[in-house]
Specification:
With about 550 residues, this protein is α+β, with helices and mostly antiparallel strands. It is built from 21 helices and 20 strands. Among the domains are: about 140-375, Aminoglycoside 3'-phosphotransferase, Chain: A, domain 2 (Alpha-Beta Complex), CATH 3.90.1200; about 420-480, no CATH class; about 485-545, no CATH class. A hairpin with a 3-residue loop joins strand 1 and strand 2 (about 60-65).
């Protein structure tokens, strides 16, 4: 989450964020923290904080604790930086509860080395006055740590074959943990687990500007539903965020254009599952190794935003192993070093081979693996474009666009044409988006309060601003077309016999079914019955139309 609001002045944002994190660290009572840790361990050993080892990251403050025992036990206290993960205390509590539930679930069901969680409090109602988690300190160092202490990385990457195989094996283990919905994992009071509302970077960031609307958090039973809701969240969140550059008409059209790429990259065979537990950021920065023991993986850390995701999102080559194929602007932003490029070129084929072998051992379909392997990276970049702010120079969209439409069709030209089309003017009026000057001149009329349509929860600004008037013909046409805001959204559902049926969302909230030439209307409640499978008997046909919330 890159956009934060510790304003302003001439100080760079990064310095302001670091200063805020340090201010929060200075407010932590380390002696009280050590006292709590000793009480939790309850073996009479004294606990001492190690402030010189404290790490202040972008989202968390990590404090190390030492116990005076024969094992030289080390614990870690993890404090989320307020305002970095989210400003909302309830959402922050969800993040912590989900992280703990996920770490324990993974530790119980896989061989992945996850730090053991000893104690946590997800609220500010405690002795420290802030949420925190106490866990074992993960042993080992990341490859980045080795680089920083002067280790020759060009020599080190020659010895990483075993590391790559182990990495792929752990990704395959997570892929063998299926769930019925897309969401975040939570633990029930009886110790069992459930799929709850999503805690993703986009959710946590944009909901701050939308007064925490949970309709965007799922859980979801369809990848298509998940993608559409995520895109809608980004659009509405960017529109409501007045702390950065205003959300423009062209921005909106570009975001809607990105949505049109979904059918080309979404694999139909996995649109309704399986959904699997994923670390989400299972890459070099979160993998710790023992350099002296053949770079064996000793810990996987930072499970904050782990979630249950589409299989297509999980089974892909990790970002760092494909960094040589990134856009040049992304490589510059991430400051990719020479050894990282060499690592990607050298080990990407091996990683694919190892991942395939481990997945086939768990009875995964080989045909499906071929498809996911081929399009994994492009799919991940599409998800980024859908959920995050669009790349400023359009380089990422350019790559995805050319893969589908080739070099002769420019997405910039398409956006330009959309701006002058009827649908564009309809949406501009509906969302109170300022039209470009040339289009405003065409609209004509005098300024007036934009109140020709009652406010709804889909209206992005309240009160609505002053806009240019449209002609009466345009306004009349718009009233007829407003219903198509939802009609063009496509969701695929799995039927009782395993067939997928496209359901077009209609703004009326009803479903029309054609059977033997007759039209019948079905209540959405009947469509919801039966969990992930829609049970409405023989009425189901391939000519099903309507809206399902």
């Amino acid at each position: 989450m890159s956009e934060k609001s510790w304003n302003t002045g001439d100080t760079p944002l990064e310095i302001l964020l670091e200063e805020e994190a340090r201010r929060q660290y200075n407010s932590i009572d380390l002696d009280k923290l050590a006292e709590i840790a000793a009480r939790v361990r309850n073996n009479g050993e004294k606990c001492t904080p190690l402030p010189t080892l404290t790490r202040i990251g972008g989202s968390n403050i990590i404090v190390f604790l030492a116990f005076e025992d024969e094992e030289n036990t080390r614990w870690t206290a993890r404090f989320p930086v307020r305002g970095m993960i989210t400003f909302d205390n309830d959402l922050l509590s969800d993040v912590i509860e989900s992280m703990v539930a996920t770490m324990r679930y993974v530790a119980e069901r896989t061989c992945i080395p996850v730090p053991n969680v000893h104690y946590w409090n997800s609220t500010s109602d405690n002795e420290l006055g802030r949420p925190f988690v106490l866990m074992d300190t993960a042993k080992g160092v990341s490859l980045y740590d080795l680089e920083q202490v002067g280790i020759n990385m060009d020599e080190s990457i020659q010895k990483l074959s075993g590391f790559i195989d182990e990495w792929a094996m752990y990704v395959a283990e997570l892929a063998s943990l299926p769930f019925p919905q897309i969401g975040s994992l939570f633990r029930n009071p009886d110790g069992s687990c459930r799929v709850g509302k999503l805690c993703t970077a986009a959710n946590l960031h944009y909901l701050h500007f939308l007064q925490k609307s949970d309709k965007f958090r799922g859980p979801f039973r369809s990848v298509a539903d998940f993608l559409i809701k995520t895109s809608e969240l980004k659009i509405q969140g960017r529109k409501a965020n007045t702390e950065i550059n205003p959300y423009s008409y062209d921005d909106f059209l570009q975001d809607k254009l990105i949505e049109t790429l979904i059918p080309y990259y979404l694999e139909p065979d996995v649109v309704n599952g399986p959904f699997v537990l994923s670390h989400v950021d299972f890459d070099l920065q979160n993998i710790l190794v023992d350099q002296k023991n053949g770079f064996k993986i000793t810990g996987v850390v930072d499970w904050d935003l782990a979630a249950i995701v589409p299989l297509q999102s999980h089974l892909r080559v990790p970002d760092l192993l494909i960094c040589d194929q990134w856009t040049s602007s992304r490589r510059e932003t991430k400051a990719i070093a020479g050894w990282q490029l060499e690592l990607a070129k050298r080990y990407r084929p091996l990683y694919k081979q190892c991942l395939r072998r481990h997945l086939l051992a768990k009875f995964f379909n080989q045909y499906l693996l071929d498809i996911l392997d081929e399009d994994g990276y492009r799919w991940s970049r599409l998800l980024w474009l859908i959920s995050e702010n669009s790349d400023e120079d359009g380089a990422e969209l350019e790559v995805l666009w050319k893969y589908v439409y080739g070099p002769d069709v420019s997405w910039q030209e398409v956006v330009k044409n959309m701006a002058t089309a009827t649908w564009g003017s309809v949406m501009a009026e509906r969302l109170a988006l300022p039209l470009p000057e040339d289009l405003e001149a065409e609209a004509g009329g005098e300024e007036r309060p934009a109140s020709s349509r009652p406010l709804t929860e889909d209206t992005l600004m309240s009160p609505r601003p002053v806009t240019k008037d449209f002609g009466w013909k345009t306004r009349s046409a718009n009233k007829l077309r407003w219903g198509w805001w939802h009609t063009k959204q496509l969701v695929l559902f799995r039927m009782g016999n395993g067939d997928r049926v496209p359901i077009l969302m209609d703004h009326r909230g009803e479903v029309e079914v054609q059977e033997k030439g007759k039209i019948r209307t079905i209540s959405p409640k009947k469509l919801k019955r039966g969990g992930s499978e829609i049970q409405i008997g023989k009425l189901l046909t391939s000519n099903l139309k309507g809206r399902v919330e």
